[in-house]
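no rush on this but wanted to send it before i forget. what follows is a protein written twice so to speak, once as letters and once as structure tokens for the fold. mainly i need to know what kind of three dimensional shape the backbone takes. thanks a lot i owe you, the record is right below.
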Amino acid sequence: MLAPRDGALGESPTQIVRLRAHQKLFVVGLAGIDDADAARRLHGANVLVARKDLPRLPPRAFREIDLVGLLVVDEALGALGTVQSVRRYPSCDMLVVGPRELLVPLLIAYGVSIDRKKREIRVRLPRGFEEL
């Protein structure tokens, strides 16, 4: 499905005929979009794909939507809150946690362990983290 970028209601069913990764994005070729002008009109539109049609992820890889809503628990501080979103930075991705919007790095160095069945992310943050 193709959703308009301007927030207008409605979706248009279409077929993806080409797909390639480009940096952290995808370049998508759609059926019936055969010239640059037609493609330009769709720039920034959202492509909606059913979860069942997404490719399998390698082990220990997660989609952002799978992390949102999970409880983040630090071994020393306890529950920090739930994941609100994920922010992408050049050095690493960060979980945005709880109403204070704590930024928790998604790095093995911080003991990040994700258990989707328990709906929990366990971490081991450095001392003084809560004061930042």
About this structure: The chain has two domains: 2-53, 64-131. The chain has a mean pLDDT of 85. The longest strand covers residues 78-88. The radius of gyration is 19 Å.
